[in-house]
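debug: dumping io for the single-chain case to check the tokenizer round-trip. Nothing else runs in this session.
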Amino acid sequence: MNRIHLPASWHLPDGAATPEPIYVDRRRFLRGSLAATGASLIALGTTPAWAREGKPDGKYTRPFTKSGKYRDAGRPISKEIHATRFNNFYEFTTNKTEVWKLVDNFQIKPWQIEIGGLAKKSGKYDLDDLLKKLPQEERVYRFRCVETWAMTVPWIGVPFRKLVEWAEPSSKAKYVRFETAWRPDEMPDMSGWGKNFPYFEALRIDEATNDLTMLTTGMYGKVLPKQNGAPCRIITPWKYGYKSPKSIVRIEFVEKRPDTFWNLLQPRKYGFYSNVNPNVPHPRWSQAKEWRIPSEDKRYDTQMFNGYGEQVAAMYKGMDLVKNH
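debug: decoded output
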């Protein structure tokens, strides 16, 4: 049974806190307090060490085009150093500002993805070979975490519908399930999570083939950093960030709705759809406002579907978006 630790007065406020399932022992709680210290510095207007040290590298060498449709997200692009040094990736650590320091031993080459389930082209494929078959482009998207922080990122990748078309799923396939890497010897924090991993997520087939959904392999004109989900992750900008599984190893087309990681652990708090919705609060904080990395000084109104309603609202027509969150 999970234990809930009451935060000290200096701890990260609920609106920017890591979901409570990570507080499974004292060691995780102490790690969380380190993340809180960094966030407190941000709130005070100072620049924390994670946002100052070094600069990510690794030029993106695969050919890609710049999207004409998704070049302006309606807000400034976040600095690369912020987007690559402030991450949730619990397989490595629950401390957002430490993930980038712990990924060196994670091996991403060679990398295979298994296509499975109700797809004509089921099998294991080398990621590099697979990408040669698919068009890639750069798109600037807003990114919103369930913890109320937000960024704006120029991603590079494949419109996921192109991969679906290539895989040729059966008409019986109603959902796409994703499974991520399971390597406890390379991911230092996995040992404490036991049977919960590997991480798994899913989308309805119409969500997966929506024009916005991307299989992402780069950002800021560079290869996707390990801390951001290298070598490939899913991006669905109208949903909370945990619906964007990182370091994917399996994509499966299925008929029945599969379980998803957080929904299985805490169904009252993390819905299957997980669309950004200011009208559905997390049990521990409101979703009506967001703060944009790196400063928590100013709060902004949360937009329904993170501002992408024109592209996605039709998929949920007739649904109660409060009950079916």
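debug: round-trip ok. The first helix runs from residue 26 to 43.
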